[in-house]
Amino acid sequence: MSDTSSATLLADRAVLRVAGDDPRGFLMGLVTQDSAIAPDAPRWSGLLTPQGKALFDFILWDGGDGSLLIDCEAAQAEALARRLSLYRLRRAITIEPTELRVHWSPEPGWGVADPRLADLGYRWLGDATGAPATGWLETRLRYGVAEGVAELGQDQTLWLECNARELGGVSFTKGCYVGQENTARMHHRMKVNRRLVVARIGEDDRARVRYPELGLMVTHRRVEALGDALRPRWLIDALAEDALAAGA
Asked: 117 vs 60, 78, 140, CA distance in Å?
């Protein structure tokens, strides 16, 4: 975690702290990634419906004091905390906002590589000092990475259709979590029929979000009808692997 006065602040992100009675064990049974987070090795993860559809996505960080930190959408932080709190039952777990903020740079020198894709640049947690970062949205979209409730859809998109397998958002060895059964079944059958992709803006009734200033949109398409979707290397490799498995 570091402080900086550069233009690195991701102003639309917030940080929650999960602490108390074994927060790692608490989250292990809920979220899609292994919560055994090492220092400076964050992991992208999701909280799903029992049917395996995305509700929230976030990045998990080691809190350094036995706690875990959740790097999430600021607009969804309160809703995410409420949802996680439903699972506490009588357990002594606290889920609270912090003063920490998320920072990003396209160049090395600060933080660690984005856990989804190294090409996305570097992020770290620090105070709110500094100006808002420029270029993050375009960088993320140019590499075909969707995030957040607006793009992923809440209770609309299966987690593997959010490209979670390719972008490190799911562990297939950690054991049970909410939505695990359907997610694991899709993985083992290599059955991902649709994907969230980034494409040039155009007529598309499955578009989730449009970004006119960048000429891009996030849309949900069948894999055999991706059309003019951007095809970063990770997506090319995933489609080739799926085609190989289908032909085996």
From this structure: 15, 27, 9
Q: Which CATH number fits domain 13-133: 3.30.70.1400, 3.40.50.1000, 3.40.630.30, 3.40.50.150?
A: 3.30.70.1400
List of residues 6+ apart from 208 with CB closer than 8 A: 146, 150, 151, 152, 153, 196, 217, 218, 219, 220
Q: What distances in angstroms separate CA 108 from CA 78, 132, 222, one per listed residue?
A: 32, 18, 36
Tens-place pLDDT, residues 79-114: 999 999 999 988 999 999 999 999 999 999 999 999
Instruction: Express each pLDDT in 39-79 by its tens digit.
Output: 999 999 999 999 999 999 999 999 999 999 999 999 999 99
